[in-house]
Write a structure and sequence with these properties.
about 475 residues, alpha+beta, Uridine Diphospho-n-acetylenolpyruvylglucosamine Reductase, domain 2, Uridine Diphospho-n-acetylenolpyruvylglucosamine Reductase, domain 3, Vanillyl-alcohol Oxidase, Chain A, domain 3, 3 domains, 5-stranded antiparallel beta sheet, 15 helices, 21 strands, disordered N terminus, binds flavin-adenine dinucleotide, FAD-binding protein, FAD-linked_Oxase-like_C
């Protein structure tokens, strides 16, 4: 027997092993579930590297539910993590206390020509489909490569335009008009650039540290009907980067990203450029391709087929293997525009097929700095280049049960590679992957924003209950 301080009653040893009692929780619109299967289902993320089983799982039906549970957990010092699709790879959204399954909040409240107000648990793909079906046709200005991610999840990390945006737009965090947030004190707040701007800035790209986003008013822009996609292949680093730099500056090109593989694979680089258009007109292929070194493969597809092209590719892999359960020690960093080329040249000297894996990918995404307007996510120091690039080594194990050394080897690679990236190339972490970080690393990461971020944490989550998985403020 022992005394349960939370439930204020005597419990058996077996009961104590299951954690705090949630018996005193006020009535909720949604559900608080405590059964083993529901808790086990949220005990890891897409990385399958870190496992923490929570004591309880909230399936909210309102922001009020989240507020009630955060107040309860704060009073009883239980850690709380919001969870979208859990597509981070190193336990960022895990908790041994309470996990909030935000996907239960998934409504579109309004959709007009300029904005949509949505619940934070909605998937981007559902919003894109609805906005495209709107008359007149609309789209979010920036969309991640994979779109079965939640609005709240990508707004908490940044949301780089992996398939739409980046050249002429910011990230998803740059196109938010207003948020509804439940803070770590359990207060439900509306915030924007003009209202509680400190909360707005701390929450966008804020990794769930100061509040749980429950609703967002998102910018929408006109959507074109067609996408002309140009794919060019390279084995030479210098030639590839010359064409990449030409295409990101070229009028008429709306989106660019690149894939890379280990140097023993041909081609080493694939460059994807896209121009959106409304028929009967079309992009001027000759103008777009002028001066490039490689011959393109050209495809004309519908706008939504383009937006969902990565989703389709991932679903195809899912039909072949249990992709969600493969181990994914991902490495994701920002590079300044002036060093990215030397960086890739250096990486190519050591990258092996095992570093990516049959179901993984190496990716490069350009972002024009002028459109990145928010303090977070952190970008590299200004270096005179108008561009910053995200470089991903999205390693995926070939089997569900890779050899015992695989995880340690890849985490060690990430640790070493990140140190080199930061010290020699001015790189900065994009915190969706699996790079082990100490609280000192986080302080360095936030740099001159650290004291502002810490002040927001103290103000909006004074009990330090929110989102412990990253270890930014001392737990992890
Ligand atoms: C195939 C694939 C492609 C991708 N492509 C891109 C890309 O093109 N661009 C890009 O930027 N990223 C990309 N990502 C990374 C992706 O943005 C992150 O993994 C993101 O976290 C996914 O959203 P999610 O809904 O899974 O969030 P989760 O992983 O569930 O959450 C992310 C973090 O935010 C917290 N959180 C979740 N919801 C909320 C909320 N409502 N309020 C406050 N905090 C919250 C969580 O606790 C966690 O710490 C890709 C990922 C995959 C798997």
């Amino acid at each position: 027997m022992g005394f349960d301080l939370l439930g204020r009653r005597w419990v058996t040893e077996a009961e104590a092993a299951t954690g705090p009692s949630f018996a005193g929780v006020p009535e909720l619109d949604g559900e608080l579930v405590l059964d083993g299967a529901s808790r086990a289902a949220v005990a890891t993320d897409l990385g399958n590297l870190v496992h923490h089983t929570p004591y309880a799982v909230l399936r909210p039906r309102s922001a009020r539910d989240i507020a009630v549970m955060i107040r309860f957990c704060r009073a009883h010092r239980i850690a709380v993590s919001p969870r979208g699709q859990a597509h981070t790879t190193y336990g960022q959204g895990l908790s041994t206390g309470l996990v909030i399954e935000n996907r239960y909040l998934d409504r579109i409240h309004s959709l007009g020509p300029r904005t949509a107000e949505v619940d934070a648990g909605i998937l981007w793909k559902d919003l894109v489909t609805a906005a495209y079906g709107h008359s007149p046709r609309r789209t979010p200005p920036a969309l991640t490569g994979y779109t079965a991610l939640t609005v709240g999840g990508t707004l908490s990390v940044g949301g780089i335009g992996g398939i739409v945006g980046g050249l002429r737009t910011g990230m998803q965090v740059d196109h938010v008009h207003e948020l509804e947030v439940v803070t770590g004190t359990g207060a439900i707040e509306r915030c924007s650039r003009h209202r509680k701007s400190d909360l707005f800035e701390a929450v966008l790209g804020g990794l769930g540290q100061c509040g749980v986003i429950t609703k967002a008013v998102l910018e929408l822009v006109p959507a074109e009907q067609r996408a002309r996609a140009y794919t060019l292949s390279y084995d030479d680093n210098t030639v590839f980067f010359r064409d990449l730099r030409t295409l990101i500056e070229r009028p008429g090109v709306d989106h660019v990203y690149a894939e890379f593989s280990s140097p023993d694979t041909t081609p080493t680089y694939k460059l994807h450029a896209t121009a959106f258009y409304d028929p009967p007109g079309g992009p001027d292929d000759r103008a777009i391709l002028k001066g490039l070194s490689a011959a393109p493969d050209i495809q004309d597809i519908g706008y939504l087929d383009h937006v969902f092209s990565i989703d389709t590719a991932i679903d195809t892999v899912r039909e072949m293997v249990n992709w969600d359960r493969l181990v994914k020690p991902w490495f994701d960093v920002w590079l300044p525009g002036s060093t990215v080329e030397d960086y890739l040249a250096e990486i190519m000297r050591t990258l092996t097929p095992r570093d990516i894996g049959a179901y993984g990918a190496g990716l490069i995404y350009p972002q024009r700095r002028a459109h990145a307007t928010r303090p977070f996510p952190r970008l590299p120091e200004q270096d005179g280049s108008p561009w910053a690039f995200v470089v991903d080594i999205n390693t995926v194990s070939d089997t569900l049960d890779p050899d015992p050394g695989f995880v340690e080897e890849m985490l060690d690679r990430n640790r070493r590679l990140f140190a080199r990236t930061r010290e020699h190339f001015g790189g900065v972490l994009y915190p969706i992957g699996s790079v082990p970080f100490t609280s000192r690393d986080w302080r360095t990461h936030y740099g001159d924003e650290w004291s502002t971020f810490r002040a927001a944490k103290r103000r909006y989550d004074p009990g330090n209950v929110l989102t412990p998985g990253l270890g930014i403020f001392g737990h992890g």
